């Protein structure tokens, strides 16, 4: 009926998923400025989103910082750091890493799923706008 209704239905499906299914959804996301981004193998959507946050224009020191934080985050939680890049720039993302690294695993699973919801909302809006 609407983008809102579709998004709500998708989020209800995520909410009803098993813990393993939720983790699988989170684990399907690429690292920000990770190997896939540097190899040029991200989806077109992920590439645009990361570029919109300024992640395609990083200094060597910023790349090192992203690698460090991505590694620390994966080691602590067992899944990639997920953040809706469209709502951020590289500085705010680098600021978010150490804050979120202080969370416990359950908090980060909930946060990652919330960020995935935001990403889905943007992508649904784009997809439906392109279809018109």
Walk me through what this model shows:
- The chain is an all-alpha fold.
- Helices cover 70% and strands 0% of the residues.
- The chain is built from 7 helices and no strands.
- It has helices spanning 3-16, 19-27, 35-39, 44-52, 60-77, 90-100, 105-131.
- The longest helix has 27 residues, at 105-131.
- The radius of gyration is 15 Å and the shape is globular.
Which helices and strands appear, and what pairs or packs with what?
Elements: H1 3-16, H2 19-27, H3 35-39, H4 44-52, H5 60-77, H6 90-100, H7 105-131
Helix pairs in contact: 1-7, 2-7
Structural class: mainly alpha
Shape: globular
Proportion of residues in β-strands: under 5%
Number of helices: 7
What gap, in angstroms, lies between the N and C termini? 15 Å
* N-to-C SSE string, H for helix and E for strand: HHHHHHH
């Amino acid at each position: 009926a609407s983008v809102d209704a579709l998004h709500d239905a998708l989020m209800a499906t995520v909410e009803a998923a098993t813990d393993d299914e939720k983790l699988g959804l989170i684990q399907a996301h690429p690292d920000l400025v990770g190997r896939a981004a540097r190899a040029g193998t991200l989806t077109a959507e992920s590439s645009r989103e990361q570029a919109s946050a300024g992640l395609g224009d990083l200094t060597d020191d910023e790349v090192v910082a992203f690698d460090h934080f991505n590694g620390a985050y994966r080691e602590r939680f067992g899944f990639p750091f997920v953040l809706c890049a469209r709502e951020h720039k590289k500085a705010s993302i680098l600021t978010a890493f150490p804050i979120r690294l202080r969370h416990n695993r359950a908090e980060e699973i909930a946060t990652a799923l919330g960020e995935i919801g935001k990403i889905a909302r943007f992508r649904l809006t784009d997809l439906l706008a392109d279809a018109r």
